[in-house]
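quick one: CA2 bound model?
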Amino acid sequence: MPDPTVLYVLNGPNLNLLGVREPDVYGHETLDDVQALCQRAAGDAVLVFRQSNHEGELVDWVQEARERASALVINPAGYGHTSVALLDALRTLTIPIVECHLSNPAARERFRHRSYVSPVAAGVVSGFGSFSYELAVKAALRLAQEHRAAADRSV
Ligand code: CA2
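yep, here:
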């Protein structure tokens, strides 16, 4: 039996407040709603869905994903604009990484235009609210499949 596809979806600071504060910017859905949507989009894949307000914890989870995941979706939230530590951790991964945002940071304040994650991401999905996550999960699963096929061909 082949190994199951394991997809990590990591969420950065303040995303636990989704649906509770600033619905005009981030929508009415809660993070639990987003998790359910990701699970539906992931089908049979094993979904590991987590949120943390702490940079080091996110770094630990990225390192964990290095050992266990077939692909990683990350909404780094504010740390995407600031965290070299997160970038350094992401750089160690060989699995596909998809960056995901609810809003479109490029259409917002200037300080949101820089992303430390984008240079190591296979792609970025932003601006579609919770639908960004659905698209990101689908993209990550496709990339994981291609990544595995390429690895199988090389043995
Ligand atoms: O659009 C996104 O997904 C962001 O990653 C969200 C971050 C922001 O810093 C990025 O520029 C874009 C902020 C997450 C904060 O989430 C909240 C949710 C509800 C209420 C308050 C904050």
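The domain at 6-154 is CATH 3.40.50.9100 (Rossmann fold).
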